[in-house]
Amino acid sequence: MPVFFYTLGCKSNQYETRRLAEKFSALGFDQTTDVKSAGVIVVNTCSVTHIAERKARNLIRRFRAQNPQARFYVCGCYANIAELDKILPQAIRITQEIKLRPELWGLPGPRRGSAQAAQRPAAQTCRVREFLKIQEGCDNFCSYCIIPYARRAVSAAAPENILAEAQKLIQNNVREIVLTGINLGRYAYQNISLTDILRLLLRTNITRIRLSSLEPDLITDDLLKIIAAEPRLARHLHVPLQSGSDKILRLMNRKYTAAAYQKLIARARRICGADFGLTTDIIVGFPGETKATFQETCAFVQEIGFQDLHIFPYSPRPQTAAAKMPLTCSDQEQKQFCQKLEKLRQKMRRAVLQKALARPLEVLAENNRGGFSSEYAPVKFTKKAASGRIYTAKPLAVKDRFILAEPAHGVADADLHRQII
């Protein structure tokens, strides 16, 4: 029976959909990209903004209209908090507790143990970069964020399970593993930390490991030192800022000040090198935002010199503390602020990419025309390369949002491996 998957939202959702596809395949289901031919439809939803929720509602209704006979399952953050009965009475809500256990979903069709399922291999990945989720849940309760209400329980994957899954990805020719979680820096399994997990993974023959988003108050010197010492760890961090104004950070219930954030980045650049990649998130138009606080943010992000910004217009989320706060800038002002920050983003991104022209880049070819450097700079090659191979690339010019580079020569895996002190 064909199953159709659709994913909205974060890296954790993308990871979970891939794992679901593998488990459905092992249960005897074929995967289809045609929603009309599916016997089972699975929509993995997001709830981080009202726009994400609106997309989820629209997709659910559209898929149901296109295929009213299919069995319909909805999972993810929106499914955990929304009143699905009002949107799609026939939908089956899948909670986070059983999301990756489809054998408990009451699925139609083949089951584990049937002749068809027994002969079917699990779905294999074919991408050179894949996500590996090692942590679940967040209890920070930032005043704007609904995620703790959807994924509150904090837990961590056992190291042996992480290693086993990493080995499967490596066997499937994955070259870069991106470690992810709802609050990745909170990873803790008994007495094992995130840095310990990195050391364990570096005992494998993985080509590159990248970390997804890390909260600034959870980045340790131990973590920075291992990034600096190990060439297989991507020299890039995504560290959410959200605002450069201490007033707004307090209202957001963030765990740091602008000065503390600045001190962290200075320390990271001192340990990892001034040219390591740094990206961030900014929320625009949060309650309490004024022209003065927004200007503080603009000045701060320019002073830090980010490689890229993810800009989010503030979206009131039900149940959150911020939803009860009065808005202080109009829709028009919020739009103008976003436009101004977008111009600043483009200027900073180009400046960082321009600086990268001064040195060779180690680029993982995700296809035969380019990929991303260790610093997460997007690179396009001047000639075809072998997908899945790391190249020492000679940067030539900045073109729009990427670096044009010549793939000078491949880097042998043995050259990337060295003992961590």
Biggest sheet: strand arrangement: 2-1-3-4-5
At the first level of CATH, the class of the largest domain is Alpha Beta
Assembly state of the chains shown: single chain
Beta percentage is 15-25%
Tell me what the CATH architecture of the largest domain is: 2-Layer Sandwich
Number of helices: 14
Distance between the termini: 52 Å
* Sheet with the most strands, sense and barrel status: 5 strands, parallel
Report the mean per-residue pLDDT as an integer. Answer: 90
Molecular shape: globular
Helix content: 25-40%
Sheet/helix structural class: alpha/beta
Number of domains in the coordinates? 4
CATH topology of the largest domain: Transcription Regulator spoIIAA
Rg estimate, integer Å: 22 Å
Would you report the number of β strands?
A: 19
Instruction: Indicate the low-confidence ranges by residue numbers.
Output: 111-123, 417-421
